[in-house]
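Deliverable D2.4 — example input (structure tokens):
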């Protein structure tokens, strides 16, 4: 069943059992009162919830008793509500950002993976504008079966990684960049038009979606190895 929490929200309590990913609440566009109502109702039946796009101002406006139950990260604008635990095992997913400005989106991916119980290796500021930075870490990146690549501007790192590593590469275009970058549309088009075969792409700034895809891919791979 998917019980109604409030007139504006229906919580998907069975999602974890159905697809292996717990319910996440997109906080952007919701008022603090709406977020609080959802958490208060869902918290009675669901042990843990991922909050995405939770701005610091919205977090600060929540009741103090709810704030105390949220592991909040202002960089990624994510929160863990309820039970939390350290990821288990060795990291098999790398999260790579082209620039420092892409880190908030990359961190959203990392935090989503943590919420899924999956550790990640974080590699930042290795964009192709200084290609040596990427080449210095390439051997390490190539050891991971799944790589989440996060970049704005021209998104050039997507094709470079897609042509050099054997693991699954998931491109996350970001809205970082000047005029012609068109708030991520140029990087998105670059990823979609990439000549690197097998490159996967999610929507602009969608670190959450990339992490969910990575979790599905990795779990399918692990199941096939058993």
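Example output (designed residues):
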């Amino acid at each position: 069943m998917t019980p109604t929490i409030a007139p504006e929200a229906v919580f998907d309590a069975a999602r974890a059992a159905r697809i292996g990913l717990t319910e996440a609440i997109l906080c952007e566009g919701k008022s603090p009162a709406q977020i609080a109502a959802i958490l208060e109702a869902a918290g009675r039946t669901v042990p843990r919830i991922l909050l995405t796009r939770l701005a610091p101002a919205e977090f600060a406006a929540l009741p103090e008793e709810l704030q105390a139950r949220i592991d909040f990260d202002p960089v990624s604008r994510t929160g863990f509500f309820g039970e939390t635990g350290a990821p288990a095992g060795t990291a098999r997913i790398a999260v790579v950002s082209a620039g420092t400005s892409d880190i908030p989106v990359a961190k959203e991916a990392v935090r989503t993976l943590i919420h899924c119980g999956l550790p990640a290796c974080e590699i930042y500021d290795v964009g192709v504008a200084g290609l040596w930075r990427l080449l210095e870490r390439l051997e390490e990146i190539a050891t991971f079966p799944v790589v989440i690549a996060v970049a704005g501007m021209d998104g050039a790192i997507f094709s470079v990684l897609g042509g050099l590593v054997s693991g699954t590469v998931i491109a996350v275009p970001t809205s970082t960049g000047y005029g012609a970058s068109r708030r991520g549309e140029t990087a998105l088009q670059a990823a979609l038009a990439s000549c690197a075969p097998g490159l996967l792409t999610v929507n602009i700034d969608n670190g959450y979606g990339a992490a969910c895809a990575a979790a599905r891919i990795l779990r399918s791979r692990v199941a096939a190895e058993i």
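Residues 13-82 form one domain.
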